[in-house]
Specification:
The protein contains 21 helices and no strands. It is mainly α.
């Protein structure tokens, strides 16, 4: 009864760390082999970040635990404290190995050992430990470990092993977008862009959130362009990216060559009509509009180019282009003259252009 009264007092004083600790210490004294009181005291000590005290409590408690699963759990906790908080990694490694000697199929201990090897910068041992754990874990947990194994392999130039891990993860969880994205990375690194294309398409088929979707689409479009295949798909991918981010410089640059090659001036116009009106973007838009014979809209773009021009020679050129467009395509000589007169005085050469009768009044 004394044990339970002390334990109840500890719970009642749970907001008072010192009071809870005192109550639990009395409970432990009253019943030295009672695991409940010791575990409660351990939690209070851990909350206070008293790592050495926690290790001592665990060392005293573990031999008294009758259930093997509990012994393993708290032995792992002790080993992790030794490694992470007390920097006694060699002791921690020995502790993990002792647990595995008792139960070689303890997947949780293998994962923890893998984490220790990572912290000690022993990547090959970390990969081996996590790989052993993968064979023992249920599918969902196995996929998580396989992804970590693949990342470790990739970071240490073991690309084929990383690919093997990811392909296994993909078989276990075909809907996992992270796996598809990592597969694409590895396929590219291995010089297999056609496989990377398949992986990216599988990721996109899972309808990722817009930021992830844009990244995958840009990568896929770039890969297809480098492979020199499916220009229609390249244009469509870039257009979709631009529908979400009209200012995407990568999409604006990438869409130009395939759209021009296909003669898809409407697609190019849609892309650059919504783009920021920079000088370079207006040039592309003007060219596409001219190819489409959309002269009224082209006149508005030429006007924007003229108004944005700062150097006299450039203003002269833009005004002349606008004037010729009004005269020859829109049949409006008055607008043509107005375009020239707008810049006369800013660029004296415009006066000479006007005098030579580039535009017939």
């Amino acid at each position: 009864m004394a044990v339970w009264r002390c334990a109840a007092a500890a719970l009642a004083l749970s907001r008072d760390g010192e009071g809870a600790r005192s109550a639990l210490e009395r409970a432990v004294e009253a019943a030295p082999r009672d695991p409940v009181s010791r575990i409660g005291l351990l939690r209070v000590v851990l909350a206070a970040s008293e790592w050495s005290t926690a290790v001592k409590l665990l060392e005293d408690m573990i031999p008294k635990l009758a259930v093997r699963a509990l012994r393993q759990r708290y032995s792992r906790e002790r080993a992790c404290l030794l490694d992470v908080h007390l920097q006694r990694s060699a002791e921690a490694e020995d502790a993990f190995e002792q647990i595995l000697a008792e139960d070689p199929l303890d997947a949780d201990t293998l994962v923890a050992l893998g984490e220790l090897y990572e912290r000690r910068q022993k990547p090959m041992l970390a990969i081996a430990a996590r790989r052993r754990a993968c064979d023992l874990l249920p599918p969902a947990a196995r996929v998580s470990q396989l992804v970590i194994v693949a990342e470790l392999c990739r970071n240490h130039s073991e690309l084929e092993d990383g690919l093997s891990a990811l392909e296994e993860a993909q078989r276990l969880d075909p809907e996992n977008s992270d796996v598809h994205r990592m597969l694409a990375d590895l396929y590219e690194q291995l010089g297999k862009p056609e496989y990377a294309v398949v992986a990216l398409r599988m990721e996109l088929a899972r309808n990722p959130e817009p930021p992830r979707r844009m990244v995958a689409q840009l990568r896929l479009a770039g890969l297809l362009a480098r492979l020199g295949t499916e220009p229609e798909s390249v244009v469509a991918l870039y257009l979709d990216v631009l529908s979400m981010d009209p200012s995407s410089s990568e999409a604006l640059a990438g869409i130009q060559a395939p759209a021009r090659a296909l003669g898809w001036w409407d697609a190019l116009t849609r892309a650059f009509r919504a783009a920021p009106p920079t000088a370079d973007n207006l040039v592309v838009l003007a060219d596409a509009l001219e190819k489409m014979s959309s002269f009224a809209e082209l006149a508005r773009v030429r006007r924007a180019q003229l108004e944005a021009a700062t150097l006299p020679a450039e203003r002269a050129r833009r005004a002349s282009e606008l004037a010729v467009l009004h005269e020859t395509r829109l049949g409006d000589p008055d607008a043509a003259i107005a375009a020239l007169r707008q810049a006369v005085g800013v660029a004296p050469e415009l006066e000479r252009v006007h005098q030579r009768g580039v535009v017939a009044a």
